[in-house]
Design a protein that fits this description.
Number of helices of chain A: 11
Shape of chain B: globular
Number of helices of chain B: 24
Helix content of chain A: 55-70%
Number of strands of chain A: 2
Distance between the termini of chain A: 62 Å
Family (chain A): Belongs to the complex I subunit 6 family.
Enzyme class (chain A): translocase
Keywords (chain A): Cell membrane, Membrane, NAD, Quinone, Transmembrane, Transmembrane helix
Strand order of the largest sheet of chain A: 1-2
Helix content of chain B: over 70%
Chains: A mainly alpha (267), B mainly alpha (626), C mainly alpha (99)
Radius of gyration of chain B: 30 Å
Protein name (chain A): NADH-quinone oxidoreductase subunit J
Order of helices and strands of chain A: HHHHHHHEEHHHH
Subcellular location (chain A): Cell membrane
Oligomer: heterotrimer
Strand content of chain A: under 5%
Strand order of the largest sheet of chain B: 1-2
Order of helices and strands of chain B: HHEEHHHHHHHHHHHHHHHHHHHHHH
Radius of gyration of chain A: 32 Å
């Protein structure tokens, strides 16, 4: 007999995370929930006297399959957000009624059967191996072939042949100039701005800041500082002692982080 | 030697193949090869003829088995040749006249760039014609029948760069198709009635068949004969067939091919003997065509077309004779042979005249040519006397026999057929004399640039030989009924019947009519002035000039209804047949359009479908199983 | 406690998985729903194996796992190929199946 505690633990550990399949927004959350379901199922297997299968479940599903899912999620971008509005008319109702219908039908049948379980045969590796390499040895071999085929198939599927000729560096450059880009490198941030910090834009010959010299990420985070603003900041914090310090290092109190452009606006 | 008769066909055929395949390389010597092939055929035929003469008359029919042709279960047909007096007559006529015309053509076609091709076609014609007359089954005969049709088509359209000549070739081909259809039908009927197609089986079983069966076959054979021999109502192609070079007109459209219909009927004599109604139709067609052709010939100013009309008329005589039954068969063939000589001779004479007159054919611009072309005048004159039936020239012996035979019988038939034949003789005398006088006598009405001159020896010698034949062949063959006895193994012995009028009276009547016709022609065209352009004339003359509107009649009777039928069928096909198919297809397309909406391309809808199906299956199992 | 309850649990998990396949438009999430359905079947197999006291059910579950692994490999490869071609993994996009 299986202990009821184990059953209820397993039931909660599987059904609740499984519901995230229906309600969670982010795919990564769902994947982690399914990992939880897989672990719960492994526990169920152990509880059902199939310890070998429980271990295999952990290794194959949580260890390999779900990690593969996560890899692919990362590959296609975790920000692949899903529009939750239903596009197909009636699809929600169909899903609800079919899923509910299947559950209802199966449970109604299962609730009416009464079975007396036989004495357990523990599925340890040795026992499993005897059955696997005994009666099912042919299936086993065929499945081996299937796995090889699947691996090769995945290789073929994800292999993309080069359809266009390889572009040389000069061609890339020519295309870029044609597209109206700067013929030369973008200026580095901080150049001619009296400061070489990454968040300070460079200056053009007229002294105007070149906005695009600062990384796009800093700009998006509103962490870019203006050159003029930085100069005044520098002058404000300068004190006579500065000149006395060796190497012109700023004094200790100047480490206090000053609010950057944009941060003040947010506040 | 009789077993070697296949050489008759093989030699010209091989020559034709060589000439056609060798191309321009054979231009220098090709025409002499053609002459040699035809000459060889004549020599072979003549030797076989001598050998046949040495046999008893009952043993003169020889079958030559060539090869097993169609070894079918029901139809087991061998390709074989039947050499008997009838086919031997034709062999001699074809090869002899053919060879002469080959020789003539060497000179006549000298300035034509395609002379080699011309000789190839001529050889092909000779081979096909010999196959036609030598075949021992209707099917093999049909091969030759089609072969001569092909050769005729090729030769009528020999100058096919002229549009109307090509059209004339097509016309001849199409009209002949109708006749061929008749022959095919006849063969089908024979096969269904007798289960065989060879002459031996069919003709020996013919007396056992019912009259209705024989009449059906006979009428179909008559249709075939009408097509090939230009008899009413399929006569319209012969006049246009004169588009071909004149030697072709002489050989194919006067002497040999057009007489194939007569051959077919005489060969099928046992069938017609058992079908009196079919015989009457044959005789009626012959009599009608004989008058029709004579009337057309009276009005034509084109020398070749006048001769073509005459050919039509003379073949009408032969058909009339063939339709009279056993008493007429031999005379039909007799007239066929003499006609082959004198008409070929006259065509060659006409060719010689055209040669001298820069290929003009309008007799109104001829006249007084006897001084410029003595040989042509004499040879043509002999042919003229022969066709008129003036004793002792050939035509007298052959045509008068037909007239006599036509007067044999009971009831209305001898009077109608005999009368037609008698009147035809008078008309023939008129139109042939008209042609002769307009061409050779009277005043010269030549156009300015022509300078008539006698033709070269290569052309005149064949004309002379044919003229000798025209003059004396009839007398020679008629002496002691030689020809009739010669053909007796094939045509059967005919009991002598007395005509409804005494024979001397008939001869006298014929000669009087002929003399009257000739005299009238002399008065109008020999002595009197002949206008250089055709004067306006009565409605009847206009009708005759226009071949009695045969093309218009054909158009109205055959072509228009055919077109309407075709259009109707096309319409029915488009609306009913195609309509049904299209409507059905449109229905299926609509069904597809409707079911297409199920295929909305949404994977999740498909998954939903699958799961709904699963729920149903589970429900059925659960509810049904419990 | 009777192992049949695990079969009921498997049925519930199966319907959750099937609902996910029908409802989610993210191909990877729908695919995870398929995996959940497979695992529910596995759970049923193991439970039956326990009920009958025989190991065949466990071996079947083992086979299912192998097949599922192969399926995941190929399926994810298809999703990646799809993503490369269309820059999306939404199941509503590839409407080329539209009739």
């Amino acid at each position: 007999m299986v202990s009821p505690v184990l059953f209820w633990v397993v039931a909660i550990l599987t059904v609740v995370p499984a519901l995230s399949l229906l309600f969670a927004r982010k795919a990564v959350h769902i994947a982690m929930s399914i990992v939880c379901v897989m672990v719960g199922l492994a526990a169920a297997y152990v509880g059902l006297d199939a310890p070998f299968l429980g271990v295999v479940q952990i290794v194959v599903y949580t260890g390999a399959v779900m990690m593969l899912f996560l890899f692919v999620l990362m590959l296609v971008g975790v920000d692949q957000r899903e529009d939750t509005r239903e596009t197909i008319k009636g699809q929600r109702w169909i899903a609800f009624f079919t899923a509910g219908g299947i559950a209802f039908l199966l449970i109604s049948v299962l609730g009416r059967v009464s079975i007396a379980p036989q004495a357990a045969r523990v599925g340890n590796p040795e026992e499993i191996a005897l059955v696997l390499f005994g009666r099912y040895v042919l299936v086993m071999e065929v499945l081996g072939a299937l796995l090889i085929t699947a691996a090769v198939g995945a290789l073929i599927m994800t292999h993309t042949p080069r359809l266009t000729p390889r572009r040389t560096q000069s061609e890339v450059q020519a295309a870029r100039v044609l597209a109206g880009a700067d013929p030369v490198n973008k200026p580095m941030p901080g150049v001619f701005a009296r400061h070489n910090a990454l968040d300070v834009p460079a200056r053009d010959p007229e002294g105007k800041p070149i906005e695009h010299s600062v990384s796009r990420v800093l700009e998006a985070r509103h962490q870019m500082s203006d050159g003029d603003e930085f100069r005044t900041r520098l002058e404000n914090t300068s004190n006579p002692e500065d000149s006395q310090l060796p190497n012109g290092a700023p004094s200790a109190d100047s480490d206090e982080r000053t609010p950057r452009i944009g941060e003040e606006d947010q506040k | 030697m009789l077993t070697l008769t296949w050489l008759l066909i093989a030699v010209p055929l091989a020559s034709a193949a060589v000439l056609l395949l060798a191309g321009r390389r054979a231009d220098a010597w090709g025409h002499w090869l053609g002459v040699a092939a035809s000459g060889t055929a004549f020599v072979v035929g003549f030797v076989a003829f001598l050998q046949m003469l040495g046999l008893e008359s009952e043993e003169r029919a020889t079958s030559v088995h060539l090869f097993s042709w169609i070894p079918g279960g029901e139809l087991n047909l061998d390709a074989g040749l039947l050499v008997d007096p009838l086919s031997m007559t034709f062999v001699l006529l074809i090869t002899f006249v053919g060879t002469l015309i080959h020789v003539y053509s060497v000179a006549y076609m000298e300035h034509d760039a395609d002379r080699r091709r011309f000789f190839a076609y001529l050889n092909l014609f000779v081979a096909a014609m010999l196959l036609l007359v030598l075949a021992d089954s209707y099917l093999l005969l049909f091969v030759g029948w089609e072969g001569v049709g092909l050769a005729s088509y090729l030769l009528i359209g020999f100058w096919n760069f002229k549009r109307e000549y090509a059209t004339a070739a097509n016309k001849a081909f199409f009209v002949n198709r109708i006749g061929d259809l008749g022959l095919i039908f006849a063969m089908g009927l024979m096969f269904s009635y007798f289960g065989a197609l060879d002459f031996d089986s069919v003709l020996s079983q013919a007396p056992e068949a019912t009259t209705a069966q024989l009449t059906a076959i006979g009428l179909m054979l008559l249709l075939a004969a009408c097509g090939k021999s230009a008899q009413f109502p399929l006569q319209s192609w012969l006049g246009d067939a004169m588009a071909g070079p004149t030697p072709v007109s002489a050989l194919i459209h006067a002497a040999t091919m057009v007489t194939a219909g007569v051959y077919l009927i005489v060969r099928s004599a046992p069938i017609f003997n058992g079908a009196p109604n079919a015989q009457v139709v044959v005789a009626a067609v012959g009599a009608f065509t004989l008058i029709l052709g004579a009337l057309i010939g009276m009005a034509k100013d084109d020398i070749k077309k006048a001769l073509a009309a005459s050919t039509m008329s003379q073949i009408g005589y032969m058909m009339l004779a063939a339709g009279l039954g056993p008493i007429g068969y031999a005379f039909a063939i007799f007239h066929l042979v003499t006609h082959g000589f004198f008409k070929a001779g006259m065509f060659l004479g006409a060719g010689s005249v055209m040669h001298a007159m820069n290929d003009q054919v309008d007799m109104r611009r001829f006249g007084a040519l006897k001084g410029a072309m003595v040989v042509t005048w004499v040879t043509f004159g002999l042919g003229w006397l022969a066709i008129l039936g003036v004793p002792p020239f050939s035509g007298f012996f052959s045509k008068d026999k037909i007239i006599e035979a036509a007067f044999v019988g009971e009831g209305w038939q001898p009077w109608v057929f005999g009368g037609a034949a008698l009147i035809g003789a008078g008309l023939t005398a008129f139109y042939m004399s008209r042609l002769f006088f307009m061409t050779f006598h009277g005043k010269a009405r030549w156009t300015d640039e022509v300078h008539p001159h006698e033709s070269p020896a290569l052309m005149t010698v064949p004309m002379m030989i044919l003229a000798v034949g025209s003059a004396f062949l009839g007398l020679f063959l008629a002496m002691g009924d030689r020809f009739t006895h010669w053909l007796e193994p094939v045509t059967g012995h005919a009991e002598h019947h007395e005509p409804v009028l005494p024979v001397p009276v008939l001869i006298a009547l014929t000669l009087i009519l002929v003399a009257a016709g000739g005299l009238l022609a002399w008065l109008r065209y020999g002595r009197a002035e002949v206008p250089e352009t055709a004067p306006s004339a009565s409605l009847a003359t206009l009708a005759a000039r226009n071949d009695f509107f045969q093309d218009s009649v054909n158009r109205a009777v055959v072509q228009r209804p055919g077109q309407h039928l075709t259009r109707t069928l096309v319409y029915v096909d488009a609306t009913v047949v195609d309509g049904a198919v299209n409507k059905q297809a449109r229905g299926w397309a609509g069904l597809g359009e409707a079911s297409r909406r199920l295929q909305n391309g949404q994977v999740r809808s498909y998954a939903a479908t699958m799961l709904v199906g699963l729920v149903i299956v589970v429900a059925v199992i659960v509810v049904g199983g419990l | 406690m009777n192992p049949i309850n695990f079969v009921i649990l498997a049925a519930i998990l199966f319907s959750i998985g099937s609902a996910a396949v029908l409802l989610r438009r993210n191909a990877i999430v729908a695919f995870m729903g398929v995996e959940l359905m497979l695992n529910a079947a596995n759970l049923a197999l193991v439970a039956f194996s326990r009920i009958h006291g025989q190991l065949d059910g466990q071996v079947m579950a083992f086979f299912v796992m192998v097949v599922a692994a192969a399926e995941v490999v190929v399926g994810l490869a298809i999703i990646i190929a799809l993503f490369r071609a269309r820059q999306t993994i939404s199941l509503d996009e590839p409407a080329e199946l539209k009739g």
